[in-house]
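Entry type: protein chain
Record version: 2
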Amino acid sequence: MTFKDKVNDLLTQVLLEKPSIFLIDLTITDSFKIIVNIDGDNGVVLQDCIDVSRAIENNLDREEQDFSLEVASVGVGSPLKMVRQYKKNVGRTLIVKLETQTIEAELVEANDNFIILSWEAREPKKIGKGKETVQKRQEIPYTEIKEAIVTVTF
């Protein structure tokens, strides 16, 4: 079993014990630096990172392979990568980059195939001069999303 396989197995085991936590990214560099990024349905607390770190570190032998380990939660400005992240952010405002446009809107629904965004826009009146505020709603398949980031408002 390769070093990467061992790390992957240990990570899988600890995540099975914590079903609300899920893996976003696992990187193992050529110099055996292990970088684990996790997220959670209810966020990630420090103890989650400690538990994942211990589960990996305590079950690898540094005599066999020296390594460094970094376990972190995804940052606030990190792009959403998994459907599960979209689902946990329903009701929040996203900036979604598509091929031809960028939309800042509320995420009102997320399922396994697409998201639905809702926002207000100013458009020319159908009759007469000036603009009016209209409610927009768009269904976007995940395959069309180039990048999506949750906006933080204070």
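Comment: The chain has a mean pLDDT of 93.
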